[in-house]
Amino acid sequence: MAQKIRRKSAKSSLPLLLLTIPGMIYLLINNYIPMAGVVIAFKSQNFAKGIFGGDWIGLDNFAFLFKTKDAWIMTRNTILYNLAFIVIGTICAIIVALLMTELTKKFLSKFYQNALIIPSVISTVVISYIVFSFLNSDSGLINKTILSLFNLPEISWYSEAKYWPVIIVLVFIWKTAGYSSIVYMASIAGMDKSIYEAAKIDGAGKFRQIKDITLPLLKPTIIIMTLLAVGRIMNSDFGLFYQVPMNSGALYNTTQTIDTFVYRAMMQLNDTGMAAASGLYQSLVGFVLVMVANGIVRKIDSDNSLF
């Protein structure tokens, strides 16, 4: 009897398993097969001997990440920016999701959803020129319209590094908040509406419902999304930190991250071993941070940990 049940379950699951084949092939080609290239991080580059034929040099390829004078700056920027993105980005995505779920008219809901998603599909190069149209010293909207309206002095935005932490975060939120809110909107849509009806009968207002019902029920989703983001904390959006500041050398102190540093170094050295070493370093640190963060969540609330 049990064997028949298992066979029946396997047959019913077969169509769903077939649907996963394209995704599994994608992961195999883009994620698992390239893992063989990890060995390049420990070898010297020698194209005459082939990709894997270089001499074994141990950890020498990792040294350039830590011996440079910019090692502290790029590591600091990468971690702090990503922490800001996780905290501020999560808050903004939840706020957007809560506002969108309050729209009752279907036309307005679809319109705003599409409007919020559009920034996430725009090329970073295009976004960099949109930002440039605001910040350009000669004809930018902020200098020529906003600052002049209040009789404030013009600012050379691409030479003043102190303004760019705020600019980078604002551009990131504008680009990603709408797309990130989709996950939270889906979670809210799946919540039991009878709980809200009972809260209304008890006299709970909208803010009380959000505080006591929506946010507690969103906690598992928030934790999972945060843990996934922690795994990428040593990586950065290359376009955001390279294209948007227009690769201005005056801004390196606040826009230099590990990814942009490696790109600029590789443009000069053209050493794939060093590039592989930096990628492996970022992946290992991200893996360790996910394990640590998941362990903390498991001790506090084991039901919401990833594993």
Automatic annotation (TrEMBL):
Domain ABC transmembrane type-1: 75-293
Pfam families given in the database record: BPD_transp_1 (PF00528)
This protein's UniProt keywords: Cell membrane, Membrane, Transmembrane, Transmembrane helix, Transport
Bilayer-crossing regions: 12-29, 79-99, 111-135, 163-186, 216-234, 279-297
Membrane topology value: Multi-pass membrane protein
Localisation: Cell membrane
Highest rank taxon of the organism: Bacteria
PANTHER family: ABC TRANSPORTER PERMEASE PROTEIN (PTHR30193), LACTOSE TRANSPORT SYSTEM PERMEASE PROTEIN LACF (PTHR30193:SF44)
Sequence similarity: Belongs to the binding-protein-dependent transport system permease family.
Name by which UniProt lists this protein: Aldouronate transport system permease protein
The organism of origin for this protein: Paenibacillus turicensis
